[in-house]
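Feature request disguised as a bug: please show the residue count (96) next to Transposase in the output. Example input:
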Amino acid sequence: MAGIIEISPAHQNFSRYDIRVIIKFSVILGKDASCIHKDLLTVLGENAPSIQTVRRWVKAVPEGRDDMEDEPRPGRPVTACGDANISKVLVSLSHE
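Example output, currently without the count:
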């Protein structure tokens, strides 16, 4: 019989990549989206992805999605605030 699981805060720091790998592994084990979501809620609490996100990834695995990284999207690049751009701004401000 399962008891209450005490999860330390250190075990709640999973990246999006980690969570996707867990979902993929769970799908391979034959778990459905609801079961996977429940497991993620047990471990991650409020940091768990939504059931919609879990369903999307559960659907993607059998469709051949092997890469668990984010796919590029149009719009502002994630690196817009990177070191290179910060340096450019600082250089332009020093020339004013």
